[in-house]
Design brief:
It holds the Pfam family Aminotran_3. The protein has about 500 residues and is α/β, with parallel strands linked by helices. The protein is built from 14 helices and 16 strands. The strands form three sheets. A seven-stranded mixed sheet has the order 4-10-9-8-7-5-6, sandwiched between helices. It binds pyridoxal-5'-phosphate.
């Protein structure tokens, strides 16, 4: 019922001057498998109750589910997901992983062709897809970044990058940011800096230091020109455009780590997501990353860009998020969107750095598997052929501008940030103090969005950020629809809150 109401909602208020239109939900995407809301296809699998029972009984208890009544998704197409009852607009893409669209026909065809030809050999034999893919992937990277090692996940990629940095430099210490997420393996758990993701294990922090996060919204310093985004914070400052004092302050904090915590002049490396993903789409103050990379190199270290979420055109302006910081890293790690949902990851570096791996035998069974490589090649092709980077920029900027209007309208939206289709919407209890919205209140809004047919991710240390990172094939109609849903849900929530406060 709610869904029907929304589908005929006028979005004049959201779309700006040209926006006096009614939601049609008709897609304008070039993607052949369009994602207009449809009736769900027939499902003949296990019942919902059976799946819930099996999940409880046989999966380890740490396997979490989104939503009070978790969804049982049995089909995906373009930017749509289906359960037994209805279709959903997927604004989270399987955690920023479905880059070109669910079951994209070209990627499906590449995988089908490969599975009829050759599944697996390991790299002890040569097979053509691995080499074709390696050449194609590194062609997307600048400078000396021309050697690749394939892995199966982002954690594995970052594990390897940590090891390479330590071997290459002969140094042990590594820096990452507070609020970072770089994986959940015992090695990368140390880089990840949220207490929620940490087990109490000895050695996790071995040689790892967490720098103050240069976050212009929740951080202690920040103003209204700090971010490389179409939307700035509502904080005030007297900095001129391009002269962000917050960057200087945060950079001094980084220098303190070198002064107080590291052996003099010695660091193995620094990891940074180009935009923090799990941390809530947080962008750093402008210019910080470039200066940090210079400082790290001046102390003998390597700069490692974690592009697991921000790579492959998602940020719109660039193919890689690090380009937005005007740097060329020493190592780039990637996963998630690289395979559109197929388990695949990669570490790319220069020949000079990669040589250190020859000091011992290093092997994994599945990295560079023919099936994964066939998928990886098709994904690169689709991003180019369907101009998905350009689409991320256009639709993402349009979406961000719409969200900015919603932020100005609703007290519960404290911040809107991001680039392209890597967007965060931070929900707050108090706009002035930027106090985060507590979990039950956030869940009210987030569940309501789901009930209206739009799936968002959830992130940030306080789990109060709506994460908007859909397949890159979404169009403006989808964006309008998602904006209208957020608008409606925030409105309903605020009405409820006002009723509550009168009691
Ligand atoms: C930026 C970043 N790096 C690394 C990882 C770890 O990737 P995986 O879950 O594939 O191990 C993630 C996962 O969310 C991530 O967001």
């Amino acid at each position: 019922m709610l869904l029907m109401t929304l589908r005929t909602l006028s979005v004049r208020a959201l779309s700006g001057p040209a926006g006096n239109r009614t939601l049609t939900t008709q897609p304008i995407t070039q993607h052949p498998e369009s994602h207009k809301p449809q009736d769900p296809p027939a499902y003949n699998g296990q019942s919902y109750e059976e799946v819930v029972k099996l999940r409880k009984q046989y999966l380890t208890p740490n396997v979490t589910s989104y939503y009070k009544k978790p969804l049982l998704i049995h089909k995906g197409s373009g930017a749509q997901l289906f359960d037994q009852e209805k279709s959903y607009l997927d604004m989270f893409g399987g955690i920023v992983t479905v880059s070109v669209g669910h079951c994209h026909p070209k990627v499906n065809a590449a995988l089908e062709e490969q599975l009829r030809t050759l599944w697996h050999t390991t790299n002890i034999y040569m097979h053509p897809k691995l080499h074709e893919y390696a050449e194609k992937l590194v062609a997307k990277l600048p400078g000396e970044l021309k050697n690749v090692y394939f892995v199966n996940s982002g954690s594995e990629a970052n594990d390897l990058a940590m090891m390479i940095a330590r071997l290459y430099t002969g140094n042990q210490d590594i820096i990452s940011f507070r609020n970072a997420y770089h994986g959940a393996s015992p090695y990368t758990m140390g880089l990840t800096a949220h207490s929620t993701w940490r087990y109490p294990l000895a050695g996790v922090n071995n040689g790892i230091h967490h720098a103050m996060n240069p976050d212009p919204y929740t951080g202690i310093w920040g103003g209204k020109h700090c971010r490389d985004s179409p939307v700035q914070t509502t904080r005030s400052c007297d900095c001129q455009e391009g002269q962000c004092k917050a960057t200087d302050m945060y950079y001094e904090q980084l220098e303190q780590i070198f002064k107080y915590s590291l052996p003099r002049g010695k660091v193995a490396g620094m990891f940074a997501e180009s935009i923090q993903g799990v941390g809530g789409s947080v962008q750093y103050t402008k210019g910080y990353i470039k200066r940090a990379a210079e400082l790290v190199r001046a102390n003998g270290g390597l700069f490692i860009a974690d592009e697991v979420q921000s790579g492959f055109g998602r940020t719109g302006e660039h193919y890689w998020g690090f380009e937005g910081h005007d740097i060329v890293p020493d190592i780039v790690t990637m996963a998630k969107g690289i395979g559109n949902g197929f388990p695949l990851g990669a570490v790319v570096t220069s020949r000079k750095v990669a040589e250190v791996l020859s000091q011992a035998l290093h092997f994994n069974t599945f990295g560079g598997n023919p099936l994964a490589c066939a998928v990886g090649i098709a994904v690169l092709d689709v991003i180019d052929e369907e101009e998905l980077q350009k689409n991320s920029l256009e639709v993402g900027t349009y979406f961000l501008k719409g969200l900015e209007r919603l932020r100005d309208k609703h007290d519960v939206i404290g911040d809107v940030r991001g680039k392209g289709l890597m967007i965060g919407v931070e929900l707050v209890a108090d706009k002035e103090t930027r106090q985060h919205l507590s979990a039950p209140h956030f869940v009210d809004i987030w569940e309501m969005c789901k009930d209206m047919g739009v799936l968002f991710g959830r992130g940030g240390l306080n789990a109060n950020v709506l994460r908007v990172k859909p397949p890159m094939c979404i169009n403006r109609t989808d964006a309008d629809y998602a904006l209208a849903v957020i608008d409606y849900c925030c409105d309903q929530y605020m009405k409820k809150r006002k009723r509550g406060s009168r009691r």
